[in-house]
Design brief:
The complex is a heterodimer of chains A (about 120) and B (about 110). Chain A is mostly beta strands and about 120 residues long. Chain A has no helices and 11 strands. In chain B, the strands form 3 sheets. In chain B, strands 2, 5, 6, 10, 11 and 12 form a 6-stranded mixed beta sheet that branches. In chain B, strands 3-9-8-7 form a 4-stranded antiparallel beta sheet, with no helix packed on it. Chain B has a two-stranded antiparallel ribbon with strand order 1-4. The N and C termini of chain B lie far apart (about 40 Å). Classes of the chains: A mainly beta (about 120), B mainly beta (about 110).
């Protein structure tokens, strides 16, 4: 049973560029959440996708956008990259059938470095 | 707004000694509570969770946590630490609404000395 997978593992971009990160949820899961983890900090909630729609959003600017596909996989897009966007981006999946006591399972993350 | 406090940034414990990591939350009602562990360069692995019922929760790898409503705390414990337990530990809370949005503490880094 494959867990949550993310690609790429590492990414280096320069300021002003755009980046797309990808996530495949755990088998049987239909909900995907994205978190940003800056160095030395706990993860911060960016947004959550269910049924191909953004269901809730954290305190992140519109430069951060996402998408969920019919197979439940998801993308996180960040436009106009800033140095402060350098972080580990974590994807978590869960099952809406188990809500509200569903458990989020995390992928290994994508390390984004903005130069 | 809900928040999570992990007052210890670093903790060093001798191998075989007991461990307690502190977590306090601020929220008007009883949230759902979680402990996750993160090894270097890795994602987060769930150790245990509390939704309701028995306030003493057992998790994986010999960890347990106790929910104390009066203290708004959810401390993580282990009776005997192994060198492989060295990692970053995160406490998280979630609103018990129709879907989860996890709010994490800043983490406690556990170092295990021989």
């Amino acid at each position: 049973d494959a867990g949550v997978t993310q690609s790429p593992t590492h990414l280096i971009k320069t300021r002003g560029q755009q980046v797309t990160l990808r996530c495949s949820p755990k088998s049987g899961h239909d909900t995907v959440s994205w978190y940003q983890q800056a160095l030395g900090q706990g993860p911060q909630f960016i947004f959550q996708y269910y049924e191909e729609e953004e269901r809730q959003r954290g305190n992140f600017p519109d430069r951060f956008s996402g998408h969920q596909f019919p197979n439940y996989s998801s993308e996180l897009n960040v436009n106009a990259l800033l140095l402060g966007d350098s972080a580990l981006y974590l994807c978590a999946s869960s099952s809406a059938r188990e809500a509200p006591t569903d458990t989020q399972y995390f992928g290994p993350g994508t390390r984004l470095t903005v130069l | 707004a809900q928040s999570v406090t992990q007052p210890d940034i670093h903790i060093t414990v001798s191998e075989g000694a007991s461990l307690e990591l502190r977590c306090n939350y601020s929220y008007g009602a009883t949230p759902y509570l979680f402990w996750y562990v993160q090894s270097p360069g890795q994602g987060l692995q769930l150790l245990l969770k509390y939704f309701s019922g028995d306030t003493l929760v057992q998790g994986i790898k010999g960890f347990e946590a106790e929910f104390k409503r009066s203290q708004s705390s959810f401390n993580l414990r282990k009776p005997s630490v192994h060198w492989s337990d060295a990692a970053e530990y995160f406490c998280a809370v979630a609103l018990n609404t129709g879907f989860q949005k996890l709010v994490f503490g800043t983490g406690t880094r556990l170092l295990v000395s021989p």
